[in-house]
Design goal:
Two copies of one chain form a homodimer.
Chain A lengths: L3 E8 L10 H16 L6 E5 L3 H5 L4 H8 L7 E6 L4 H15 L5 E7 L6 H9 L14 H16 L7 H11 L13 H6 L2 E3 L2 E2 L9 E9 L11 E11 L14 H14 L8 E3 L5 H10 L8 H6 L16 H5 L3 H17 L12 E8 L4 E10 L1
């Protein structure tokens, strides 16, 4: 595969953007990425989005966004959907499009608009990420599926609720320094302990907030870049995608993210680095239990021992494997189809050294992992910085 | 780009499959394609689908289908959406995935389930292919948008309604010999003249029927194939994708399919053949007006002269440029997100010489064109057969 570089990034704050449409949000992120790269356009646009058809009565976002950003040449554009993994799916497809030689530059953008709808509509929309015939029909929501997994995990491995607190506390601590985060405030162990239960054992501070937002990058073949540029070049060193069953009860082991294991191994193999070579990890902490499972399946913790990394402080900036360095889903927010692209943008920010108080010193290798459903579709990407 | 071959095809009949779910339909097409190729699996599955979220309350079809067909390795799988162009979009992404080297075999499958819903639900779903803010809000449906285009076309170029009849008569004549077609009966000029008007000037026989169905192909690099096989090898010679504005009133010329022109030119350029080198053309006759516009923008007729090809018999088997040789959208049926994949499968059937009474003699080069919305997303593919 030809080497691909990310030469531009853009994002909107994650918020309740009642005054901005899907198009306006996507456009802001795309224009920011183009401006960041010093380019005027790209040959293709791949859009990651989950809910536009259901919540905005609008499909065919590819054409709509391509038209909105003014590509007079009518560039190629599609929407890609893999539930909450849609963002990274768009990134992977942009990557393959450029790698194949079919296009010489591509924008990957993730965009989602969730806060204009009634909560019941948004929850029904999110439930389409679960198995309609075998899960949703029994009244399961997306939170309750994760609650069942967390309960089982605590039972199997003997953890207490409080043991998950460091994941959320760390995410909030980092979001304080991210101007694009939805929840820019710290939380204490006391806050976590007192948080209202949503679906036992998951409480409000175990769960990520939804939101509206968009994030985008511009990809080109690395060979296009002039030699000897001052700024570091960010390249895609590894890309992996894998699936598991959607229905959690169909999995041989409901506490093991098989698709995380497979996609991470693929990304490790391509990039030539293993978990020990990764400087920081933007993982998919939709619920705190998913942080634990993701760390384990990706090789950072033993099976059942994910919470230990949090309790020992290893996930903080300066620890062995800093995670959610810009706030993660928990505090940056989780505009579902856009989340995977926020992760990629944040990895680039770290590799460029743009993260101020939450900068990972000397970061050269960053990993992002985006999850669709409760582990049904998982994509892992490893980016590297080189002079 | 490395040369890609299609080594397996599969399809279900287009029908009202009330007893079969999305999964069952997709599975039947995929298993048929694998069996046709003599293979047991593929490394990735790209799903073209438009309406599963809205009509079946189910997203994340990629994982769901990958799981259903029993890929124990948890292969990569996503859903791709470009309204009625979703099928060809899935094909193009499968093509780029294999061409990039990220995977060495890929299934592209288009699947749609439309007849279990109330007509009002299906129509609302289809309207998400139009511009929600500028078209649908005024009460336009998908048929009425096409009706406005047809009316304008007749006014500008002086055609009568009857001049469009050959498109529908030809499609039905060919569908009689396609066991997978939804409407396997011929129609007469008299039938066309008496057909009920749906949205003036479009009548029932100008419009394609919806339906449930799935179609799939298996793609591999051509270099994998053993030399000197008896059967012809079908390769992808050209692939193009382009967009235009979704809202028809936003186009400089509402009677010109810019995205058809751009994507066809791209496919011609890649394949080294022009319109004169194409032996038959599976075009997107969602409405008869679209047949005329597609023939013009793709270089088979002068501007405003598309109907002439029908009136002169040039679109029939044996004519200068046979179209809709298996019935087209009009008579094979239009399960929207699957349609683009039916077209690809049908081109392969012709190039293999499997079409019996509607076989295009000595067909070596076939073209397929799939349209999302009223011309917003258009993909053109050229396939070749070689010994």
């Amino acid at each position: 595969m030809r080497e691909i570089a990310i030469i531009g990034i853009g994002q909107t704050p994650v918020s309740e953007h009642w005054e901005k449409s899907l198009l306006v949000l996507a456009g802001e992120a795309i224009f920011a990425a183009l401006q960041d790269a010093g380019r005027e356009s790209a040959e293709a646009i791949y859009v990651g989005n989950m809910l536009s058809g259901i919540l905005s009565q609008q499909e065919q976002l590819g054409s709509l966004i391509a038209d909105w950003v003014g590509t007079t040449r009518g560039v190629e554009a599609f929407k890609v959907e893999a539930a909450c993994g849609s963002g990274a799916a768009a990134f992977r497809l942009a990557l393959m499009a450029v790698a194949s030689g079919e296009v010489d530059s591509a924008i990957a953008v993730g965009v989602e608009k969730m806060t204009d709808s009634l909560p019941i509509e948004t929850n029904s929309g999110l439930a389409t990420a679960a198995d309609a015939d075998w899960e949703v029909i029994h009244g399961l929501t997306f939170v309750s599926i994760n609650a069942l997994v967390m309960q089982r995990y605590m039972y199997e491995y003997g953890w207490e609720q409080d043991d998950f607190a460091p994941f959320s506390i760390n995410a909030h601590a980092n979001a304080v320094h991210n101007p694009n985060a939805r929840l820019q405030f710290p939380i204490t162990p006391e806050d976590y302990r007192k948080a209202a239960v949503i679906s036992a054992p998951i409480n409000l501070l175990d769960a990520s907030p939804i939101g509206d937002g968009a994030a985008a990058v511009l990809l080109v073949p690395a060979e296009q870049l002039p030699l000897g540029m001052g700024a570091p070049v960010i390249t895609v060193a590894g890309s992996g995608a894998a699936t598991s069953s959607i229905a959690v009860h169909d999995r041989r082991d409901p506490l093991w993210l098989r698709a995380a294991e497979f996609s991470a191994k693929q990304a490790y193999h391509q990039s030539g680095v293993g978990p020990q070579g990764v400087d920081f990890f933007e993982l998919h902490d939709a619920f705190s239990i998913m942080s634990a499972l993701s760390l384990e399946a990706s090789g950072f913790a033993e099976r059942g021992q994910g919470p230990r990394l949090g309790l020992d402080g290893e996930i903080r900036i300066g620890g062995r494997i800093p995670i959610t360095t810009r706030g993660g889903l928990k505090a940056r927010g989780h505009p579902v189809g856009a989340t995977g692209m926020y992760q990629i943008v944040e990895v680039v920010e770290q590799l460029r050294g743009q993260c101020g108080n939450t900068q990972v010193d000397g970061a050269k290798v960053g990993m992002a992992q985006n999850i669709g459903g409760s582990g049904a579709t998982i994509l892992t990407h490893i980016l590297k910085s080189r002079k």
